[in-house]
Structures are given as C-alpha cells and as structure tokens.
Design goal:
The complex is a heterodimer of chains A (about 230) and B (about 450). Chain A has one domain. Chain A contains seven helices and no strands. The N and C termini of chain B lie far apart (about 60 Å). In chain B, α8 crosses α13. With about 450 residues, chain B is mainly alpha-helical. The chains are: A mainly alpha (about 230), B mainly alpha (about 450). At the A-B interface, α1 of A face α14, α15 and α16 of B.
Chain lengths: ~230, ~450
C-alpha cells in the first residue's frame, strides 16, 4: 500500500498557510495583540465530529506522549493542526489526481491509490477502528487504558488490524505523518504551539540566515522565531 | 475716520485693478528658441526617445490606464492634482493643439484657452528644452499616440489654490529664461547638463522647494541645485556634496543604478523606480555617460578619477560599524529589541555587516533611504516591501517582502531606529506614531 502522495507538497503547504494568515491576520489591531489561545479542551474542531475528535486527541497523545523527555502532541496542539488540514485543501486532496483506476497493488511510483481523500480516510478509519475496539475491548479507542491503546496502534501499524473502509489507504502511516507535521510545522498551522517542539530540539525557526555561525563550535544562542514573527 | 475709509477704499480699488490686470492682461507665450528651417523633419524615433527621456508617461499614464490618457493622482501639499489626457483626442486630449499651443504648455504651463496648469507639470524644467526636442515631442504625441476619448478627472483644489490666475504671479516669480545655455567647453558635459536640467527634470524632485513651492535650485549655479528634496514624505537624495551618490559612487555604479535600478551599493525604491523603469533604462549609452559624467563633474570628479570610498570613513565610524556587526553576530539573547528584530527579519539578506549583496540586496549602512531626515521611505519599505523595475539589461523584478503583517508599529519603530543608528549610520529615532501614520496612509 502506498502513502507516497500523502506527503504534502511543500510549496502548496506554504502557499496555503500564507493565504491563511493573510485572511486571518489582517491589519486590524487584533493582528499583533497577544490573544490568549483557548485551552485545547475548549477547542471546537472544524472538521472532526465530537467522537472523531476524542480519537484524534487520544491517538496523537499515544504517538507523542507527554510523559517523555519533551512536550507531547497535546502540548503542541497537534490535533488542532490535523483538524485544520482535514478541513483544508490537503484533506480534500485538492491538487491530487484522484481519478481511477485505483490499484492497491500498484508499485509505489504510481502514487496514491485510494479513491478516498485524506479527510475521508480519517472519517472512515476512525469509525471502523472505534467499532473494532468496541467489539474487542468493550469501549471506543479513546476510553481504553494506555497499554491497550498502544497495543491497538501497534497492531494497526503492523497491519494486524486490516481496515476495509479506507479502500487501500494506509491510515496509520497518514496519522503518524500528520502528527509529526503538526508537531514540527510552523505554529501558523495550529500545531507546534508556542514553538514548543522547536524549543525542545533547539531549532531556531524561520530566521533563515546563520552565515556568521558557520564553523562556530557552540550552540546558537537565540530562541526560535516563527513565520508570523513571534519570538519563542 | 472718513479719511481712513477713503484710503481703504482707494487701496481696495487699486487692489482690484491689480488683480484684474493679473487676470485679464493678455498673456504672451514664449517664442521658439530657434527657427527651424521649413524642411526640418523630426528624425525617425526621436519623438519617442524624447518622450522617454522627459518621462511623460510617469505622470500622464495612470496605473493600468491607457497610455497618456492621464488620470494619475499626484499628491501635492496643496491637494490631489490629476494628470491630464495628452493623447491626440481633440475633445479630451490635445488633438487640437498647434505646435505653438504645445510649446506654450511645455514652456509656460499655459493651455490654449489661457488656463494655467499647476507646476506639478515640470514646465520650470521643460522650458529649457530645445526646439528640436519640442518638435520631436509634438510629432510623437500627434502621430504615434493612440487618441483616447476619455476625460481625465478634473483637479479640484481648495481655495485659494483653485484660483489658477494666481499662477501668473507664481510664474512671474518662479520662471527663469527659456532655453538651456551650454555652459561648458565640452560637448559631453553640455549634453549631460541638458538632459539632467531639461528633459530629465531631476531638479523637480532632487532640488528642495522654496517658500512658494517653486524648485529652489534649478540651475547649476544655484546654491541649492540638486541638494535633495522631499517628495510625498520620501527623500529624493542630494546629488551634490561629499555624501551624495554621484560623489561616492564610481562611474560604473552610477551608470548601473540609473539604467538597471541596482548596483553594488543600493537598489532603487519609491518614485525613482518608475523613473528607471519608464525613462532612464532607455537612455542611449552615450546619453547615460553624459549624465553620469555631468553629475560627477558637479561633484568635482573627472571621468579619470577612480573612486576610493572603501575606507574613507573616520575611525569612530569604523568602530561603530564593527560594534553593530559584532553585536548582531553574537546573537546574544540579551540584546535590545531593535537588533533582535534585525536578526529575525533582515539578516538573511542584508547580513550582520549591513552590506547586503552587490546588485541584489542593498546596503543598509550608509543608505540614504535609511538615514533620511524624514523616515517615511524607510518605514514604507519595511511595512510594504519594494520591487525593482524590470529593465532590459537586468530584467529580474527582485523584491523585498513586506513586513507589515509580521511587525507591530512599535516593532517597526524599534527596528527602523536600530538601522538608522547601527553601523556608521547616525539618524534620529523613529516613533511608533510615525509608523502608524504611514501604515494608515499606505495600507
């Protein structure tokens, strides 16, 4: 099964983001005001239903848990990123070739083979997986204990759980990829809240030039800056 | 008491007679400077060339409008002046103008019906134009421009500036003799002076304006000649004196800047972008050399002088330059907001030494736009970015992005203050209020 075309085209990604900021930022007084972001628990998803949202919160929290060394997926508000992507052009496969034929056994270089858009893959997969969890463990995924969640995700990754509803798309790989993207992408896309991921790994952000630091044998001292100009 | 009333009445009558005379005295137009022979024919292509060198398009073509149909707003301290339709349409343009009518507009700022045009039209400079060039322009507008049957918006200034008869007085004070005198024993310098003073009308922006808003410094022997002016809040830098570009830059740098909008020091922005894009890039090599030679000559440079500017700054300036460079290179988190914003926003192109890159990124250190007394141009460029004109020799429209969406008024003020005082620059601070005003105006 191929997941080649899940990879965001970087150019599109930046364009979509730039358009987004222009729409949302404006020049009004609010543009630079430090508006407190509502807590993640207060967030109303644009794409996901309440049940789907529970799943996204629970699953990303297991993929990058908060009890490790650095911030977890929920600290970085990864679910917000994924919701925004599913509601936008990426979720709708806006610039992908989506006509048939779709052949799940086609070689990788022939690209994405499911007739479903990423948003449709999420919708179908979450429903099927919750039904599977209900069936096997007596509750939906979000309500399982940590160990069981991990075992479900592991089984999904190894292909031991076969999702029929995604019609050939690899849901686990899509979810893991989007989780990483939401963790590390510029905060303007909703994830990497407060640049927590960048600060954790020491990435200096969108400063773009370090010419005078080439060959300097010590860590770069300044914290990151994001595309909107915010300093972390 | 009665006597006083009589005196006042007498003065009033005299005043009325004087005003009446100003308004109704017949106006005499300037005669042709030379009588051209009856068989004189404008050389092929010369009309278009003169139009380009005189940059008629800059004002008489609106953004996205039909060529020469007017309708471009020119913001003056008195209000908005709309450029007129100068296509050969008889109703709305200048199709009914005789050669004498046309010359009177160029030399005297007077339309055929006697209406005075506002001196936003640089007839102060165009009246130095040779008869050959007047003929060439007339020929071009009558025969090579497509008539456009559309009226340009009427200029409607507030009282008293809408009383155009007042311009007769203004002309009386402001206008010198028509024609251009060859001052030098050198054909190249004479040609350069002619292009700069007449067609190029450089003094319209690069000379200051006097109390009656006439160009203060229109002839090479005027003390304020090309001493720098302000246009719409932007500095039109001085072309005279030791810190001016013609004094500091090499011949090649001047040539590059004027024909391509970029050189090893700077890149063009603001009104001058249009001048390069619409006019100067089309100058023949010969004419450009003449202008450059002349501009260098009035700054005491002869063509054989090679410039040695690299390290002519005093030690203090060099130390200040090093200090800023070191601060930026340290990336020290405790640095003030100004340099921090420079690192976050500007450093990728203009670098820690503020020197940019030749022909691509302008120098910040020693840049006249950055250190101008009125910081409007600098603030505008930071907020809204800038785009180089595409020219035949250097077609790339290199652009600086806009930072208005990324930086608050306070941040722009901190950043602008830092670049105005960093390295060897030493200009007054910028306030957030100044930034807010430019943001509101240019948004």
């Amino acid at each position: 099964m191929s997941d080649a075309n899940f990879k965001l085209n970087r150019r599109r990604f930046l364009q979509a983001g730039a358009a987004g900021t222009m729409l949302s930022a404006g020049y009004a007084s609010g543009a630079f005001a430090k508006t407190a972001t509502p807590a993640l628990s207060e967030f109303t998803p644009e794409f996901f239903t309440a049940d789907e949202w529970k799943f996204i919160m629970a699953a990303t929290d297991r993929l990058i848990p908060a009890d490790g060394e650095g911030p977890g997926a929920l600290d970085a508000r990864v679910p917000v990123f994924i919701d925004g992507q599913m509601a936008g052009p990426f979720g709708h496969a806006a610039d992908w070739y989506m006509e048939g034929p779709h052949d799940p056994n086609a070689p990788a270089q022939l690209g994405y083979q499911s007739p479903l858009t990423p948003a449709e893959v999420y919708r179908a997969a979450i429903a099927e997986l919750n039904a599977w969890c209900n069936d096997k463990h007596g509750s939906i995924f979000a309500e399982l204990d940590k160990a069981t969640k991990d075992s479900v995700l592991t089984a999904l990754e190894k292909g031991e759980i076969k999702l029929e509803s995604t019609k050939g798309a690899n849901f686990f790989s899509l979810l893991l990829q989007n989780t990483k993207e939401g963790y590390f992408a510029d905060p303007m896309y909703g994830g990497n809240h407060d640049m927590v991921a960048w600060k954790y790994i020491g990435f200096p952000g969108a400063r773009a030039s370090f010419r005078e630091w080439v060959g300097v044998e010590k860590p770069y001292p300044l914290g990151p800056v994001d595309i909107s100009g915010k300093r972390g | 008491m009665k006597k006083l009333i009589k005196i006042v009445a007498a003065l009033a009558v005299l005043g009325a007679v004087a005003i009446g005379a100003i308004i109704f005295m017949p106006f005499s137009r300037t005669e042709p400077l030379t009588e051209l022979p009856a068989y004189y024919k404008v050389p092929e292509g010369h009309g278009k060339y003169v139009m380009r060198m005189a940059d008629c398009k800059a004002c008489h073509t609106a953004d996205g409008g039909e060529p020469f149909a007017g309708g471009r707003p020119i913001e003056s301290p008195l209000g908005t002046i709309w450029s007129t339709n100068i296509t050969p349409d008889p109703e709305n343009g200048i199709g009914n103008y005789s050669l004498d009518d046309f010359r009177a507009a160029l030399y005297d700022g007077v339309e055929p019906d006697g209406t005075h045009v506002y001196p936003a039209m640089p007839y102060e400079n165009y009246r130095k134009m040779s008869e050959e060039d007047v003929r060439a322009l007339y020929d071009f507008f009558m025969n090579e421009v497509k008539p456009v049957a559309k009226k340009a918006p009427e200029t409607d200034l507030a009282f008293p500036f809408n009383q155009r008869w007042g311009l007769r007085l203004w002309n009386w004070f402001a206008l010198g003799d028509a024609g251009h005198e060859d001052f030098y024993d050198d054909a190249v310098l004479n040609r350069g002076a002619y292009l700069v003073d007449s067609l190029g009308h450089c003094a319209a922006c690069h000379s200051p304006r006097n109390a009656i808003m006439a160009q203060d410094g229109i002839n090479a022997d005027d003390s304020n000649y090309l001493a720098g002016g302000v246009i719409d809040g932007w500095l039109a830098p001085s072309l005279h004196g030791e810190n001016s570009a013609p004094a500091k830059w090499s011949e090649q740098d001047l040539h590059d800047y004027l024909t391509t909008g970029r050189n090893s020091h700077n890149a063009v922005a603001g009104e001058m972008s249009q001048v390069v894009g619409d006019s100067l890039q089309y100058a023949t090599d010969e004419d450009m050399t003449a202008m450059v030679t002349y501009l260098r000559h009035i700054n005491g440079k002869s063509p054989s002088d090679t410039v040695a500017v690299a390290n002519d700054k005093d030690e203090d300036a060099n130390a200040a330059q090093d200090e800023t460079t070191k601060l930026l290179a340290s990336a020290d988190p405790s640095m003030p907001l100004g340099p921090r914003l420079y690192l976050d926003n500007c450093n990728a192109c203009h670098f820690v030494n503020g020197k940019g890159a030749d022909g691509v990124f302008p120098e910040i250190d020693g840049n006249s736009l950055v250190t101008a007394d009125t910081p409007n141009g600098l603030i505008d460029v930071i907020l809204n970015g800038a785009v180089l004109p595409s020219t035949e020799k250097r077609p790339a429209r290199l652009a600086m992005p806009d930072f208005g969406h990324r930086l608050s008024d306070e941040e722009v003020a901190e950043l602008a203050t830092f670049v105005r005082q960093g390295w060897s620059n030493d200009a007054p601070a910028v306030t957030a209020d100044q930034v807010a005003a430019i943001r509101a105006k240019t948004h």
